[in-house]
Amino acid sequence: MVQWARKKLVDYKYLHNAKESGLGIWKLTPDGIKKAESLSTRVNIDYPDDVPETFYEGAVKQIKVNKYERSKTARDKCIDHYGCQCSVCNMDFEETYGETGKDYIHVHHITPLSDIGERYKLDPVKDLRPVCPNCHAMIHRQKPSLSIEALKGLMKKAQK
């Protein structure tokens, strides 16, 4: 069976004959290589030898972004009311990291400032919530942003 398969591949000019490639060695011809590549179902195969040994980062690139004003007083009033515990996962940085984590928390706008689009009167207790950086990033990972309750639901579902 092997001899028949090899003969057919030699006849199609996909393999060198045994005299050229050696007994027991199946060596592809240039046409054989092209045919094998055309049959491959995977694109962009990464081989360890193909990975560059050096990576470059840190080039300076200027970009223009909108920066929305935030009130430190409103942030402080939110934290005074709710504390420094994440409203989603209950993370408390001081409890976890000691003195280094004391008073550390992000403050999330329930309605993103980018959605409001203009200056508005803020109620720190109604409009803001303390959240840890990970939960804050997950809230804003999609558009529209997830609600705090929706993210809590995702976490609960993932833990089952």
TrEMBL record:
Q: Note the InterPro entries from the entry.
A: HNH, HNH_nuc, Multihaem_cyt_sf
Superkingdom classification of source: Bacteria
| Entry keyword annotation includes Flavoprotein | no
Alphabetically sorted, this entry's keywords are: Endonuclease, Hydrolase, Nuclease
Q: Which GO terms describe its biological process?
A: anaerobic respiration
- Molecular-function annotations in GO: endonuclease activity
Query: Which residue numbers delimit the HNH domain?
Result: 86-141
**Which named protein is this?**
HNH endonuclease domain protein
